[in-house]
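sanity check this record:
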Amino acid sequence: MLNLSDIKTGKAITFNGEPYVVTFHQHSKTGRAGAVLRTKLRNLKNGAALEKTFQGADKIEEADIAKTKAQYLYLDGSEFAFMDSATFEQFSLPKSVIGDLAKYLVENTEVTILNYNNQPINIELPVKMEFRVVEAPPAIRGNTADGGTKLVTLETGIKVNTPLFIKEGDILRINTETGEYVERAK
């Protein structure tokens, strides 16, 4: 059982019999009312989000999530196909579960699979991933009034603000948690 102080962003918990991940947490203490924890939770099975406020005496169960490695294979209609790196078994997860992470999936990418009760229920991506630039407008000399950035398109269709020197064909490192440009890969 977890206390309120143990619950942080990224922690997997069981709430109403379902596995959730904490996407936001804020502790607050108000006079005689005691400590409360405001959270935003995302259901790991179906991607649904909810807000929940826990009281000081509440005990929250940690979700028993096992992590394994898998390779993303392809998109089949509304299902993403993966292959377990250890057993070579193939399985799929629906688009509704993968959610926004889908925009970072490129064939053959290695991902971490979250398993709940020995069933794959969701994925985790590496924090930094590399993508090829497929469309980059030319840098206009002297155009630094906006901080010297331009919007480029990556191979998965994501648009990212980058420095002016980035050109088509470059490989960029992107932070998958924030969606921001980190650096140009070597």
Remarks:
- The chain is about 0% helix and 55% strand.
- Helices lie at 95-98.
